[in-house]
Amino acid sequence: MSPKELLYVEDALNHEKHMKTCCTKSADELGDPALKNIMTDMARMHQNIFDKLYELL
Q1: How far apart are the first and last CA of the chain?
Q2: Backbone phi and psi for residue 32, each to the nearest 5 degrees, phi listed first
Q3: Could you give the 3-state DSSP secondary structure of residue 27?
Q4: What tens digit of pLDDT does each residue of 3-50 get?
């Protein structure tokens, strides 16, 4: 992998980590159970994407 490609993967990993954190924080702050479940599912989805990207390394 070239240095440029590694930087792209690093950026993608950081983006997914950030999105998971944002979704988790939002889920914790929401009072509506339906919206809380949606945000929790989105946090889980971003964690799965992170894990899959990390496995490629």
Answers
A1: 10
A2: -75, 120
A3: helix
A4: 999 899 999 999 999 999 999 999 999 999 999 999 999 999 999 999
Which amino acid, one-letter code, is at 16? Answer: E
Buried b (16+ CB within 10 A) or exposed e, 22-46: ebbebbeeeeeeeeeeebbebbeeb
Q: Using an 8 Å Cβ cutoff, are 23 and 42 in contact?
A: yes
| pTM recorded for the entire structure | 0.87
Q: Is residue 43 within 8 Å of 3, Cβ to Cβ?
A: no
Map residue 43 onto helix, strand or coil: helix
Among 7, 12, 1, smallest CA distance to 53 is for 12
